[in-house]
């Protein structure tokens, strides 16, 4: 009973993130942390970008997925895995499953970016499309998993997933330590909160004074509202967002207490601010960022976060954006 | 006399490149060397991309320019500098001049990419536009330099410029050494040959068996032809290329002997192959590459270079491409 309680309070430890780092070493991309002249000038500070758009499958999700799947035993591996995702978790699970020889079934919304659906299929996964507005992906996924006896790989509410994403925090701290820098703030795109919870645990262990922010689209700022209220709030949004990867209606059961306990705050951005960030990344940074991944840069450019004389880190979480949308952004 | 002869045979030494590395340390971006799952799968080898599109001004040219300008004495700095360039050298000189408080005048073709002209102006340089087909940029530049008593900063035929670009070779070797890898081949985009000559000196010092290739657009393959003939050939191209940065009609007086003595070979690619590479970089790598910078990737994707079971390095030399052209490439 005591052990269970400790687990619920502390489902992921710093040690779990170090273990995840060992599992993904030499397999995941050790993504670069870069600075840019224009961005430093504009912000009157130093801004470091952690380029997870250069990760396998073009998004950080590979880390958590590989950490989860590589920890499965032989029996579980033979039964296969099932996951649901708007796209990046889908690709992450598909790529990790292919590397480990595991069969994967992925439930994706039929309006997910074409690139994400195609890439998931290209890794050999079975893709099951559903209607985001009339069907429940959890129900479909649970049904398929029960039929196959397969393991469900949740997108964020899982200790292995959180620990895998947390390796990003370890790498940020390692690279900044070489430069003799402690980060004042880290801006993390947030859907269910797996990435943010993992990064928070990893960073706060060695730099307790660093402020962590979640970044969300204004229409889906459930985490910002939940953190302010001190409890989980579930939204029923009446508008949509171009940030297809960040449209969770509430933070996770495991992820929220972690973020809340560590003093994480929320920032939200508009679609127009996100488009401006994608355009800036094209012109000045020479990288492709998808809408959800550009939310931190959007906040910086819109002056929603103090950067003057500070060291700020942006987690650029992914780069999977369909050409028609990208072309529109850089017009 | 003997010293002069030694200089002409050996205008740039490995030591000069180490000195350049000290000068630019902490000022130029230490650009990442990345791998990609799709590219390794496709090539059946390991391909490493040196991302100089993430360098200041979006191109490697900053390195040579800063190395040249920071070596000027006080009198020369006060007189200012003059340079001519289709765009990336222009921006490199303008950015380095701004950092060092030097006045810069840049002669640019009026049909250079808009982004490159605007960025050069944004760094505070005086931009003088000329007609690429009816005027001589050398004459205009020499005239302005004589009037002002300013120092001419050549785009490639200068020992400091070559040594500055050579720092890319040092960084590639350092990063590969950490991985325990010797490169079998390095593919370097080539206009006048400053980048290739510098990289060749840096790499061959510690890895003499690495094969270096120059990459050129098919209509401007003067270096490929010169290296095959054993002497400098000047082309009078009757067609154009989308590779605006690689349209020199002949390799340099200083750069050619270096490349030739070290056994460099030439590869050329078509505009369509370059466009396919830009599209691939968008979809799979999540980075923006300009046409000239994408020539190495174009050669790999078009199977013009053996990659199976080999370690191949691509120098991604720049990312300054106008939106209308980029939009066309990813359509």
Output the CATH class name of the largest domain in chain A: Alpha Beta
Structural domain tally of chain A? 2
Please give the share of residues in helix of chain A: 40-55%
Give the strand line-up of the largest sheet of chain A. Answer: 1-2-10-7-8-9
- Most extensive chain interface and residues per partner: A-B, 30 and 29 residues
Could you characterize what this model shows?
Chains A, B: Residues 29-318 form the Tryptophan synthase beta chain-like PALP domain. Chains A, B: Its cofactor is pyridoxal 5'-phosphate; Ca(2+); Mg(2+); Mn(2+). Chains A, B: InterPro entries: Ser/Thr_deHydtase_PyrdxlP-BS, TrpB-like_PALP, TrpB-like_PALP_sf. 2 copies of one chain form a homodimer. The first copy, chain A, is built from 15 helices and 10 strands. Chain A is 46% helix and 15% strand. The first copy, chain A, starts with a helix and ends with a helix. Residues 1-6 of chain A have low confidence and may be disordered. Chain A has 2 domains: 2-60 and 158-329, Rossmann fold; 62-152, Rossmann fold (3-Layer(aba) Sandwich). The longest helix of chain A has 20 residues, at 159-178. Chain A is α/β, with parallel strands linked by helices and 331 residues long. In chain A, α2 (14-24) crosses α9, α6 (88-100) runs parallel beside α7 and α10 (194-206) runs parallel beside α12.
